[in-house]
Q: What sequence folds into this?
């Protein structure tokens, strides 16, 4: 099974608004239109079997709608596994976790920068105490500020892993977008997964190879961050920019099966 562990898909009524926000924040022209139909067409063209689709509730009031969407995606499309979202300011996180579980969703996405909290905030740690050990968490890491000033960073992620050893944790963007020089020291060798999404166009290939060489091969995951990038183009880029053999590319594509439930 070949899996893209890091994608996003939005309701057609709001997809264009989200794309405008992404352009403004990252300065990247999206490859797709952000809808599920477009994602699944590109997934099929890339030869992928499954996609994990993430959503992050940027405010407490968005938690329930975001989780409704994750449930709908999971239950309506065999190729899709939706990830829900919680927020430190939402008063009923425990009930939402149980609702997600009962509806076949066992994953959560957090994006500290967009959700407005630091990864080491006491409020987020209290939320983490509610998360079951059999859940998988995709937690955004890195941004333009230096690690000590940024809401997330490889060091905060490492400390979170050590404080909460139960749930499966994924550090996307080669372990920290724009924080790659810190990843080998902070994260490589830890009990985490690292995905390669939306990073290779912006990082020195030597940095990517250093991270790949320092972290267990079976803990490296393929992700695209669709709609920012196209799955087939990213598979080709992975082999070309990193000089990976076809067998190693296939291994990374298959590693994501470990995160698939049901």
A:
């Amino acid at each position: 099974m070949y899996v893209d562990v890091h994608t996003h898909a939005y309701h057609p009524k709001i997809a264009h608004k989200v794309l405008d926000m992404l352009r403004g924040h990252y300065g990247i022209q999206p490859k797709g239109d952000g809808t599920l139909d477009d994602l699944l067409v590109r997934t099929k063209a890339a030869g992928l079997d499954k996609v994990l689709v993430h959503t992050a509730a940027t405010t407490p009031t968005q938690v329930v709608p975001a989780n409704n969407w994750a449930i709908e995606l999971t239950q309506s499309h065999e190729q899709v596994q939706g990830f829900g979202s919680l927020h430190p300011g939402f008063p009923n996180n425990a009930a939402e976790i149980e609702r997600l579980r009962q509806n076949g969703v066992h994953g959560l996405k957090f994006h500290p920068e967009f959700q407005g909290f630091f990864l080491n905030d006491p409020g987020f740690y209290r939320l983490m105490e509610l998360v079951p050990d059999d859940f998988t968490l995709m937690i955004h890491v890195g941004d333009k500020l230096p690690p000590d000033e940024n809401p997330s960073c490889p060091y905060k992620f490492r400390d979170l892993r050590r404080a909460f050893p139960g749930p499966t944790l994924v550090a996307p963007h080669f372990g920290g977008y724009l924080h790659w020089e810190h990843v080998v020291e902070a994260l490589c060798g830890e009990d985490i997964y690292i995905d390669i999404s939306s990073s290779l166009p912006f990082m020195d290939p030597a940095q990517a190879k250093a991270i790949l060489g320092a972290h267990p091969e079976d803990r490296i995951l393929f992700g695209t961050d669709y709609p920012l990038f196209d799955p087939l183009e990213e598979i080709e880029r992975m082999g070309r920019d990193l000089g990976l053999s076809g067998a190693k590319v296939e291994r990374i594509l298959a590693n994501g099966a470990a995160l698939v439930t049901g």
